[in-house]
Each structure stands twice: as structure tokens, then as C-alpha cells.
Description:
This protein has 488 residues and is an alpha+beta fold. The protein contains 15 helices and 20 strands. The chain has helices at 2-13, 29-42, 49-60, 73-84, 111-114, 136-144, 198-211, 229-239, 283-293, 319-329, 341-344, 410-421, 435-447, 458-474, 477-487, and strands spanning 15-17, 69-71, 86-89, 92-97, 100-106, 122-126, 129-130, 150-156, 164-169, 171-174, 178-183, 186-191, 216-220, 245-251, 259-262, 271-276, 298-301, 309-317, 352-364, 380-381. Helix 7 packs parallel to helix 8 and helix 8 (229-239) runs parallel beside helix 9 (283-293). The radius of gyration is 26 Å and the shape is globular. The termini are far apart. The model is unreliable at 5-10 (pLDDT under 50).
Amino acid sequence: MKKITSFIMMACIFIQVGGHSYANLKVDYDYINSFVDMINKNYEGYYDNESLNSNIVKNMFNYMDDYSKFYTNEELQYLMDSLNGTYKGLGIVMESINDKIIIVDVIKNSPAEKNGLKYGDEILKVNGTDTFKKSAYDVTKEIKESEGDIVNLVIKRENVKSDLNHSITMESIEVNPVNYKIIGNIGYIKLDLFSSNSADNILKVINYFRKKEINKLILDLRNNPGGELDQAIKIGELLLPKSKLIAKVNYYNVDEQDESFYSENESKDFEKVILVNGMSASASEIVASSIKDNQAGVLVGDKTFGKAKVQKIFPVLNSNSQKKYFDAMNYRVVNAFDLPEDVISKLKDEDLLGWVKLTIGQYETLKNSKIDENGITPDYLVENKEFEYDYGLIEKLRKNVKPKLNQMSVDVYNCEKLLKVLGYSVDQPDLILDKKTFNSIKQFQRDNGLYGYGVLDFSTQEIFNKKLDNILVNYDNQLMKAIELLKK
């Protein structure tokens, strides 16, 4: 009951932006009932009416826009975790590489870090279950379902002969979607998602920049798919002068009053450039468009994705609970939000069929009422060179092992990705330094004034790391343009 009530409280305040077109749902009940009559007349066998009703409802969402969905309780929990910016877990990020589960990030101050887990560790077993050939999603699910929140891991680590055993208690982990740095006299913020802690974390960075007397800002919204509407409004307010329109939300339901959101910010403004691309969507487009429309900064990059629909999550009753509440209150309800508050607080898992996320309206900003499916054209259209791999996801080589031919290391995985970016011939990046990679490393060494012998030694790794730094600084044409504009 507590879980259901907390879900409903979260859903009440959760509004997401995105979507395509309005639904125009018309069901031919006579036609459907004719099928039911035919089945009842001819079919000899058991029929589970509750399952039938559930599947009919779930399948309805296959014919709506891409952003209206049905969720089970478990599926909703995963969605809420991602948007709340917190989740219960160990604080690790895993990838399935060459059928092995490899830790590719350890969150600071997490249970994983406190228990000594490291980048590059291979997870062999979770609670006694072998992870070989399993997906990272499946392993994450096994961790989350650990009994008593205690997770038993068997770890294989490079240069350690014996496997390591860890018994770790899961805790609440906060995922900060904000990364920042200072480039000369310019503050740079990368926002990955509009989760419930995004605005608070950006405010902390902005205050830090102000203490450093930085008055120029780059906000990087590239590859940001959006998230919570209220976070877009709060972040828009941090970046827009007082009284400027951030966004207006027009609801499809005539009983819902349209809303307009204006900035109340009285703080000193920054000179701003916003970076966007084709994967900047929904909440990202609210912030970007509001800044462009109010002439509070300029946009640099590619045309944005084009999502302007707003979604809301509703808890839905199953047919048995609907009948129960109909008998008690003498009116038919399927949306649990329509029940009295004292009834909502008593709902249990078995009362709900699940949860539905529905497109309920559309947002618009000051000058852009047709963002949906059209996107926003930046003030400066700048293309970045396309690589097979996102160089922002290539980790630096650690310089603590020297992989040789046929040896395995996470450093080989990152080396192979970087070799591909640099134009050398390697197969699909994995953990193994195979013959093709060996030959490419030899060529790379010769090209950079080293003795070419194919071993990924520390000197070679140092040059690889410098190459990666160079790519991050000089290959990002959009970032370079933003810096150029702010230096004028």
C-alpha cells in the first residue's frame, strides 16, 4: 500500500514533455461485442476475462503516439528512478562487452566505491548466479531484486590472481545529470537529462561560477532527450531575465486550464550560448527556444528533434477494483485520480491494472508554436564530424597494465574505440587485443615516433590519452563555435 501511494504522489506531480499527434479514439463497441458473441457461441474452453480486459487495454497503446505507454508497477518504478535522479542500488554503471559484464563507472561515495569496486572490474556472479552472456539490464535487475538489499558479487580484477568476493548493501544513489568545467573565462555545463534534481544541481554550478566571477556560459543540451516539465521551467527561470515567458502549456482536456510560465529571476544574467543537436528534445527544446525567442542567448549546433507534446501518468484500476468502487460509490471510474483522496490512500497493488502515460497537451514558447515534428533551427548551424563512436564515451587509458597480443583489458576496449575514431583498422571493439588491433597499435606507434611492436605500453597509452584530449578540444566544431562567440 505504501508503494502504491508513493507512486500516485509521484505521478500526480510528474509531467513529461514529448509526443506526436492528438489521439482521436473511437471504439466500435457493436463490432467488438459481435466478436464476443461469436466466441461465446462457438468456443468450448476456459477464458480468463480479467486477462482479456487487461490485454485489450494494453494493446490500445500500440495505436497511439510513440510517447503514450502502458506500464506495470515494476516498469513505472524504473521510469521514476530515472527521472527522480535517485535509485536504490550499488552505484555502478555496467556494460556487456564481449559477453562479459564490465564496470565502466563507479559513482563517488556510493556503496560500490566504499567497498572497493573499480572501473574495469568484471562481475562474474551476482548472488551466486553466473553473468556470462547476460545483458547489463538483466544483471541490473538481478541486483535490484536481491533479498534484503544485500548483493553478493564475485569480481575478477586485472593483475589479481584470485576472484574477489563482496557483500554490499544497496543504498539510495543520487545520479547527478550535470557535469561542468571552466574553459578559460567561460563556464561550461553539460545537462544529460531533465530529472527532478537537475535545476538544483545547475543552480549550485551557477553559484560556483558567480563566485569565480564568470559571466559567460555554455549550456550543452546535445543528446538530451528531455524529462520533467517543471525542471525545464526552473532551469529556464535560472537563465532568463525577469518577466520573460518560458513556455505556455495548452491542455487537450477542456477542463484543464492552460498555463503560462514566466521567469521571476532577478539575478545577474550570463552571456549565453546553448548547444543543441538532432537529439535535443522536448524539455531541451523548451529551454533552448525560450532563450532564443527572448534574445537571451544564441543557439549553436544542429536542428533539434521536434517534440512539443506534454505527457502525464495516471494510475488505472483493473476491472475487479472498478466494479468494487462502482458498487460502493455508484459511479464508474478507471482513472484512480478520480477516486476520493481517502480511497486513493488505501489502494493496493492488486487494485491496479498498471499505469498509463498519456499525451495530454502541447507546449509553445514565445515565437515557436510549431516545434512539434519541426524542431528549432539554431542561430548558427554548425555540423560536427560524425564518428562511429561517441568520443565523449571513450575513457582514458589507465596506465596500470600493459596488454599484449591476445590479452584482455578494459583499456584494450577503449583503445580500439579510439583507433576507430582515428581511422585505424580494427574489428568491433571488445576486451581482447587481437591480431588486427595488435597491427594497428604497431602502426600507431610508428606514426607517433615510437618503436612499433604492438604492446599497449605506458608510453603508447600516454599518447593515446593526449590524442583523446585533442579530439575532445578540437574536433567538437559546435563547442569551438560557442567559445568563439563568447570570446568576441
